[in-house]
Every structure is written in C-alpha cells, then in structure tokens.
Amino acid sequence: GGLDSFSFESRRTLIRIMGKGQVPNENDSSDAFYASDCGRRGLGTRYIELLLRRNGWNTYPTQTWYEDFIKGEFKCPLGKTIVDFCDEPEFSKVSIYLLGREYLDEKDKVIDIAGNFMPKTFCIRDGEWVGGAPPSDDVVGDAPWFIKVADMNLGGDAIDIVKKPSEIMPFVNKNQRYVVQQHVLDPLLTDDGHKAHVKFYVLLICEEDGVTWNLYTYKASLLSISPNPWSAEDLSQDTQITIHRHHIPPSETNGWKQHWQTIYKKCQEGTVKVIENAIASGKLRGRSRKQFEVFSVDWMPDCHGNIWMFEFNMSPAVWARNKEFDGVRSDGDERRSSLMKHDEIMLEEALSVVMPWAGGDSGDWEHVGNFVGMNK
C-alpha cells in the first residue's frame, strides 16, 4: 500500500506534485500539463507517449478505479482527478473516444449511414436472416462471400469465406450477430493482378460545445495488398482478406500509383458523406468536453470507377514497440520501420490539430468537412 504500490515514475511525479501543490484541476491555467495512462485498449498509450515529448507535460499517477469480474482491473488518475489527457474519457479534459462510436465500429449498425457506398449487405441475428436472405446459388455469380462477426474487428480472424450462399449457415453461431457480403465484382487490381484496398485514415473532432464537428482526411493513407494474385476460386485468407498494410505510399506503389490521385479524392468524398450522415442522424453525439478519434475506413475500388466501403476500424493497427504488427516483428525490418515512422508522424500531426502547440504541424491532415450536430 501507500507510495510503494506505485511505479518509480509515478512515485516521483506524485512527490513532485504534492511538494509543489500542483494538483491539476478543470480551471488550471499553469504551464504544467498532466497525462495519465490507464491502460485502456486503443491509441491512448501512443498519444501519451507523444504528448510527453512536449515541454511542460508530465506523467500523472494512476490508481485502481474498480474491478470487473470478467474484464479485470480498471484504472483512473490518482484521486479520480480530471487531468489534461487520459485514456479514460471520464477523467480527461479531452476524450479520445467519440460518443456513439459503436455506430461506426459495428458492421450491422453502419449500414444505415453508409448508404449506397456499401455493397449489398445481409444480416444474421439469433441464427436467422434479418430483412431477407441472399439470392440462390445459381444467380449470384462466381465471387466469394464473406461472413463477418458484426461487433468484432480482429484483423480477419472474425471473418469466414465461402463460395456460395448455401454454405453460410454452418459458420453461424446463434449467440453472435453477422453481416454477409459478396466480394466486389471486378475489383481494381494491381498491374500484376493482386487485390488491394485503401486504408483511409480519418480524424474527427467534436468541439467543447458538443455540436461543432470537424473532419480531416490523411493524404498519406496506405494500401493493403494481398501477397497472392487474386482469384475468385482461391478462398484462402491471404488472397481474400488483405489485412497487412503496404509500407510504400500509394502514390509511389508500382502497378497502382496511377490510380491514387483519383481514388484518394473519391474516398475522401465518400467518407465525408458517410460521416455527415452519422452526425446528422444523431448517431454521433457531443460531450461536455472536446472529443476526437483517429480511425480508418476500408475502401475498395472496382474497374468501373466505383469505390466500396466495407468497414470502419475504430482502433486501427499502429506502431507498437516490441510487438508484432502488420505481420512484422523484427525491429530491423525495413517495412516495419517505415510503418512505424508513418504511424508516429500521423498521430503526432493529429494531436497538433486537436491540441495545438508551438512545435506542432498539421502535416498531411486535410480539413474536408465542418458539420453541426444535434444538441447534447
């Protein structure tokens, strides 16, 4: 118990705070800023690492908030204090989670706001089709079908692939919700025949008034490219589910770069429309404090000039030291190093938009939309 229960860094910060009487509060106007890492999943730890590089930012210690029998221990800033930045929204002056984010994150809830940008999507709940089943096998063509758990995003692990609609139901667990989609017909492939989709990064901010929203898209978004040539007959995960990001920018990727300028603009316009729908319908709502989130949208172009939206990734894979990500573990790997640099710059630039400072730069974030939402 006591101070011994905290880490060395937390004890040092706690002593410094107590010695100076600098306990942060809602009205603190000093040059000292405090961030608490409470260990929630998501990008919070990454943001805090970047904020602590700024002058005047300090680590603020944490304590146990409560314990859940299933999910384990939850933490909060010491004394349940509201600090300048924390990955628990209740204790942060700026929230890193959008209120209503489930309407983007869950695949069956995003259908209403995605409109015609989403391929025809069928839903399963309690082991039964909701709103109609797919057509019969003899009229659907050769493209494979994807069965996706609606409320999970596990990098392809929550997706099954079948050849025909009649093969879907054996993969269904009655206790889960699903969306089912057929593969895009005539996908736009790389020149050497590989499937690719755009990992399109988005920054969405709602101001303190709870109704003013600003949307940014990232000009340095990335591609995900299958390691195998695409074939409708090959149902393997590597061929059909392109989860790992390509480290070379789309504008420089041989065999695809000629499409980037046009595709980026279309993805941008589609993203603006879908986010506008989410705000106008009241799915996304304001808080009593500023909130923001960096996330990605998966867009796939076809050979006819269309783009198709599959899902939002509200906790997109980003750099994590000493951990495997994007299928790469070695720190010396060129692809890993490039992706780590990309992610670090992207998040640092996003923080400079959300929480401006003298050394900041918005970089490749492009402001593309301003919306007025419903009252809190």
Helix fraction?
Answer: 10-25%
Count helical runs.
7
Largest beta-sheet characterization? 7 strands, mixed
Compressed to H and E, one letter per element, the order equals HEHEEEEEHHEEEEEEEEHHEEHE
Distance between the termini: 41 Å
The total beta strand count reads 17
DSSP strand (E) fraction? Answer: 25-35%
On the 0 to 100 scale, the average pLDDT is: 89
Structural class designation: alpha+beta
Would you identify the regions where 5 or more consecutive residues have pLDDT less than 50? none
- Cα-based radius of gyration, to the nearest Å: 22 Å
What overall geometry do the principal axes of the alpha carbons give? globular
Describe the overall structure.
The chain is an alpha+beta fold. The protein is about 20% helix and about 25% strand. The chain has helices at about 10-20, 45-50, 100-105, 110-115, 235-240, 260-280, 335-355, and strands at about 35, 55-60, 60-70, 70-75, 85, 95, 120-125, 130, 145-150, 160, 180, 195-205, 210-220, 220-230, 290-300, 305-315, 365-370. The strands form four sheets. Strands 6, 12, 13, 14, 15, 16 and 17 form a seven-stranded mixed β-sheet that branches. Strands 8-7-11-9-10 form a five-stranded antiparallel β-sheet, with no helix packed on it. Strand 7 (about 120-125) and strand 8 form a beta hairpin. Helix 2 packs across helix 7. It starts with 7 loop residues before the first helix and ends with a strand. The model has no long low-confidence stretch (mean pLDDT about 90).
